[in-house]
Amino acid sequence: MKLSALLEKIEYTGRFADCDTDFVTDDSRKVREGCVFVCSKGATFDGHTFAAKAVEIGAVLIVAEKDTGAENQIIVKNSRAAYALLCSALFGNPSEKMKMIAVTGTNGKTTSAFIIKDLLTQMGKKTGLMGTVQNMIGRQIIPAKFTTPQPYELHALLSQMYKSGCEYVVMEASSQALRQNRLYGIEFDAAVFTNLTRDHLDYHKTMDNYFAAKCILFENSKKAVVNIDDRWGKKLAEKLDKNSTLTFSDRDDGADFTAKNTVYSQDSVKFIMVGKNSINRVNFPMPGEYSVHNAMGAALAAVSLGFDIDRVCEALSKVSGVKGRCEVIVRQPFTVITDFAHTDDGLENILSSLRPFVKGKFFVLFGCAGERDATKRILMVKAVSKYADYVIMTSDNPRGENRQSIIDGVTGYFDESGTPYTTEANRRTAIKKALSMLSAGDTLILCGKGHEDYQALDGMSVYLDERVEVQKFMKSYCKE
After folding, report:
1. What distance in Å separates the CA atoms of residue 282 and residue 465, rounded to the nearest whole number?
2. CA gap 181, 237 in Å, rounded
């Protein structure tokens, strides 16, 4: 592609010799002959300092926010935004050729995105998915590295989705991705807001900053679907155009759609979704109060795109589960569940939903992440102590932080609350210990890892698939 064609949507100053290129990068490690190098400033490295070396390697154009001294150079206001536009152009602006739907929020993004994809598939629409668990082109599964990919990978994947016949794309939009302009230039046909609770403050510093990052998505969306049971959602809805926004709630009759007569069970939730001109019964095959919100948000995303609400609500009863989201690994003689819950709010949601249906004792295994917002750790411990009969405190993703120190920093609250517990820093050993405690009718939930099959430990990703560990235990258990 000619540089001049690549730069059509970008405002810049500077001159360059027009030529062909087939690669754009902002990663100094990937610079190669004939590429465009975008100088981005990160937390530890400023790409502007690499411009001269990039030219020496063979970059045909430098895109920067300030003069680097390169001959073929353009200056832009925001290099990250420019990088997103360049990547989109390189792959033929694929997002403009499909219907784009995004889901954002602290909890529920993954489940909601999967539900939307499932609903659209049931409607006969080939749909792509980008998210935390995996990426999908129709039924083809592609491993996911980030919740929201970097611009080059993002647009490359969108291009493959379009070429494969996808009409719709559903993606999770993380706050970091929005703040870093990874999605810059994409206009979404619909965006869903699930909730906002304390998380990622190591990056955003304040809840107001966190919320502001989420709002970026709705500034670039034609339609909005918002959970107003969440106070931040209510605040968001007040900012948006009412004519292009659908609000939902399980308690507020002022919402556009409200859940009524809700009945919870161990494996599903039933409710009536009441709108101004519609009443629909929903039998949703995932448990918990949060499942009402996930189901409603997903359904209304489809409705906002023009799908018939009666057909959408009928399709909700046929959706499949999501890996690592209240996923049952063992059903008999006891129950073992894995879930990605890794915040106090996420733990509160899943544990409060399961607690009423536990026949025996309720065992909870969890840990607190290392090198992340440490202030939420005690909140997580308090949430677990409210519902657990017994706690196995272990590690989550400790990263470079000492596993035992993380545990020792919060277990004092269990002593104060009187909740019985044990500690084991090695998560693999902790899982075996927890399983050995179970009797018939008991329930064990493994919190924090969900779909992940690794543990971030001492600068490495160590293989750890909880399903495999449980299966190993059950094989020996059944032989006894």
Report:
1. 34
2. 23
Rounded Cα–Cα distance for residues 23 and 1 (Å): 9
Report pLDDT for 451: 84
Residue recorded with tokens 């996923």: 327
Kindly state the tokens that stand for 226: 């918002």
With a cut of 50, list the residues of the chain below it in pLDDT: none
Query: What pLDDT shows up at residue 44?
Result: 82
pLDDT for the residue 108: 86
43-81 tens-digit pLDDT: 788 999 999 999 999 999 999 999 999 999 999 999 999
Taking the model in full, what pTM does it have?
0.81
- The answer to whether 103 and 115 have CB atoms below 8 angstroms apart is no
Q: Which residue has the tokens 């929201």?
A: 148
Distance CA 76, CA 92 (A): 21
**Residue indicated by tokens 């989109």:** 88
What is the pLDDT, as a whole number, of residue 202?
Answer: 64
Q: How many CB atoms lie within 10 A of CB 316?
A: 24
pLDDT of residue 204: 64
The residue among 12, 10, 13, 74 whose CA lies nearest residue 39 is 74
Q: 371-376: long-range contacts (C-beta < 8 A, 24 or more apart)?
A: 371/202, 371/398, 371/399, 371/400, 371/401, 372/202, 373/198, 373/199, 373/200, 373/201, 373/202, 374/409, 375/198, 375/201, 376/198, 376/199, 376/201, 376/343, 376/344
198/60 Cα distance (integer angstroms): 44
CB 171 within 8 A of CB 191: no
Q: How far is CA 357 from CA 255, 266, 396, 436, in A?
A: 30, 6, 26, 22
Residue 185: both structure tokens together: 């230039």
- What is the structure's pLDDT at 131? 86
Question: Residue 200: what pLDDT?
Answer: 62
Distance between CA atoms of residues 401 and 371, nearest Å: 6
